[in-house]
Amino acid sequence: GLFMTDYFTHTPRKLSPFRSFASIELFHFHIPEDTVIAVWNLITFKEQGGTFGDQCPDRSITVYFRSGAPSVINPLHMHFPRDTAVPGSFALTLTWTLPNRTTGVFNVTSPLPGDWFLAAHLPKDEGKISVKGLYEECQYLFQPQLIVQRPVNIATLYPGYITKQSMAPHNHSCLYKVFVPSYTLHVLVEVLRCHGAEGCPLWLRVRAKAPPLHNSTALDCQEHTPCQLSLDLPFWQHWYYVLVEKHPGVPGTISFQVTVQLTDCSRPSLAHPPFLPSSASMNMPRSFGSAGELALGDSPPPASPNGMKHPVPIPTASPTSERCWPVRPTLRNELDTFSVHFYIFGPNVSVPPDRPAVFVINLLPVLDNGGVLNLELQLNVSSLCGENATVFGCLNHEVPLMSGDNASVICETESLAGFLLSVNATASLSRLRIPYPQTGSWYLSLRSLCATEHGFEPCTNMTAEVYLHAYLSPCINDCGIYGQCKLLRTNNYLYAACECKAGWNGWGCTDNAEAFSYGFQLLSTLLLCLSNIMFVPPVAIAIRSHYLLEAAIYIFTMFFSTFYHACDQPGIVVFCIMEYDVLQFCDFLGSLMSVWVTVITMARLQPMVLYLLGAMLLSMALQMDRHGLWNLLGPSLFALGIMVIAWTARTIQRHHCYPPTWKRWAFYLCPGVLIAVAAVLLYTFVETEENYFYIHSIWHLLIAGSVGFLLPPRAKPTGCLGPLPQRKDCGYQLCINKQEELGLVDPAVASINSICTS
């Protein structure tokens, strides 16, 4: 037949090392129905400084695939919170085939239709803190492309009708699909009147949602007569695909007929006729049904050109095992993004002894699968009336699982996954968390059984009461006290993830294998805060030298640096006197202004205009990019340039080096410069996330110490004091040397050490 090909792509994105799910790059695709093959072309390339990064090291890239919701990944093998169900996903690691580019291909035959999500990340790094803009970083960019192919005009089977087909010698298979509405208990597919050269050399394969695969439910029609496939508990509101495949090497034309029968669970003894509305047969309000009831036969479906009515007998099980119980809806109350509560009508749920109580929770596509589905069951112990009863709950996706066995509760089958909850008098509370749940209908079936010497049996004359709390939340327990729940976005898709701190890890920041102790958190906070006391000596020196404005700036820096680091701690030892952003801005501004005023003071220029100019330039730079290297380094270099020009001008004017004494250079300037350079090197190349608290404390000590060495002594006016009164024939005049250039003694107590004769 004819095939249609569709192409989808995303723009390249920069990948980051994995720390938590908040650091991955998520890509959202949509695969159409009837797709027989999907091919992902995974393109990865390196960049450095706007060019190809041939010199960048090869770093492996891990890509995760999942249908219906984002992947719940755990590459660091951390612990998940209690009562958390972890859905599976497929992972692929890309290796480099070229110096700066590699391409991987991932094929999926007959993929499930709907939303598909790809998550990609780099391996975890060593946590080095790099200065932004210091050097050109290696960037690893990832771009996925999707190509899908789907057949055009797949033949549709209608329940209760026969479709005739002839398979030519050059054809290998025939593909059909049939829609299964809600409240369907059985699907029976049968191949009739099969004629071929060697009997009926056909394989009959059936699969839900997508065309069958080699491992789908199959039956060899040559070995089984009649050729019937019966599917129990089919997925509601989905297409089922039927593949009739010829044995390899069979010559000639094969003719056959295909028919499908659906069994309505409200009428277990009858095959579903095409004109009977299911909700009416259940004596239920129409609102309890679903949109799929129209496909059951509210209006008769058109017959296929070769179709005819052909009733097919269906084996009937006992009525108790095939009975259909009403599904009670829940009230959806949206509070915020990924904050949705599902309420039932009434304070408690009554679970009768003779039948289950079934509820449905509807999750909307795209809107609800980026958070966590939480389910809590709490038993009212007083309702047990002394019975040793247990209430079991089965949570299943897209179809309720109602076991007919009175001695056990099974929440899983070969084709249907489920989650089991149980509460009793001993353990009256049970929880279940499903991160990134698949959208659609989730069915909760509650059932009560009493424990006896022979196992579980149905209870008599006892109706258990449970409290049901179902809700969506962005993160598990809001990531606890050692994490932050972040709302993330990729294009038009929103999802939430935890970002942990203080050494805590895991999906809900509950893994304390590498967590910081309280004593360690207190020590790191005290080191970062108390190291700012080193600014007290520069303040005292500035006040003694009558540099009052400089002293005020040093006090400003010391104050805001102390309280910024007290507020910036990752653990619970945190104290914030203002908003975090205000404290950070004032800390950065004070640090840069301290450097600026110290350098301008060393240049011995008129300070007020330059101080005001520096404050404006630094405020602008911090507002543009608070962590950019050149936005912060530019004003500092500008101040150093002013100082160099001023010193050079004095050197030329006085015909000797400025400052003129070797002691000033040896005991003040050189040590101060060396201390400042050491501080910058530590801050730039040594500081990491693990050693931040003591390396940054050393940075505080060194920077404050360098200011104490570099701050010049107080400047005194130069020139002579004026002539002394004349004495006879000889007069004397006292002159003051330029003590501020020596920097060895305090100019305020400088002694008169030169006398010149007038």
Task: Walk me through this protein's architecture.
With 758 residues, this protein is α+β, with helices and mostly antiparallel strands. It folds into four domains: 149 residues, Jelly Rolls (Sandwich), CATH 2.60.120; 110 residues, Jelly Rolls; 148 residues, Sandwich (Jelly Rolls), CATH 2.60.120; 193 residues. The protein is 23% helix and 33% strand. The chain has twelve helices and 36 strands. The strands form eight sheets. Strands 1, 2, 4, 5, 8 and 10 form a six-stranded antiparallel sheet that branches. Strands 20, 24, 26, 27, 29 and 30 form a six-stranded mixed sheet that branches. Helix 5 runs parallel beside helix 11 and helix 10 packs antiparallel against helix 11. It is elongated, with a radius of gyration of 39 Å. This is TMM8B protein. Keywords: Cell membrane, Membrane, Transmembrane, Transmembrane helix. InterPro entries: EGF, NGX6/PGAP6/MYMK.
Concise summary:
23% of the residues lie in helices and 33% in strands.
Break the fold down into its secondary structure elements and pairings.
Elements: E1 3-9, E2 13-14, E3 25-31, E4 37-48, E5 51-52, E6 61-67, E7 90-94, E8 101-109, E9 114-121, E10 138-151, E11 155-156, E12 162-167, E13 173-180, E14 184-195, E15 202-208, E16 217-220, E17 227-232, E18 238-246, E19 254-264, H1 278-281, H2 293-297, H3 319-322, E20 327-328, E21 331-336, E22 339-343, E23 349-351, E24 357-363, E25 372-379, E26 389-397, E27 418-424, E28 429-435, E29 440-452, E30 455-458, E31 464-473, E32 483-490, E33 493-500, H4 518-530, H5 536-544, H6 548-567, H7 580-603, H8 607-624, H9 629-654, H10 662-686, H11 692-710, E34 720-723, E35 732-735, H12 739-742, E36 754-757
Parallel strand pairs: 11-13, 20-24
Antiparallel strand pairs: 1-10, 2-10, 3-9, 4-5, 4-8, 4-10, 6-7, 6-9, 12-19, 13-18, 14-17, 14-19, 15-16, 15-18, 21-22, 22-31, 23-31, 24-29, 25-28, 25-31, 26-27, 26-29, 29-30, 32-33, 34-35, 35-36
